[in-house]
Specification:
Blueprint (H helix, E strand, L loop, with lengths): L8 H21 L2 H20 L20
Length: about 70
């Protein structure tokens, strides 16, 4: 049985737009040094898992998302 959404379509669109606005504002608030530090930390977490992986999914950062491609 499907549970109906408590939001109308326009409310969902507004919520998505607000979430995107907040993510962009946060990403833009990061200094280049902190962003590089976060990207390095992300790569250090992910790369060891890729060495022995048999199946790998791809990810490419969009807009202001932190990139795992730093290293």
């Amino acid at each position: 049985m499907a549970v109906p959404s408590p939001f109308h379509a326009s409310s969902k669109a507004e919520l998505r737009a607000e979430g995107l606005r907040r993510r962009r504002a946060f990403a833009q608030s990061l200094s280049p040094e902190l962003r590089a530090e976060l990207e390095t930390a992300l790569a250090e977490l992910v790369l060891p898992h890729l060495v022995a992986a048999q199946v790998v999914a791809a990810y490419h950062p969009l807009r202001d998302e932190i990139s795992p491609q730093h290293i």
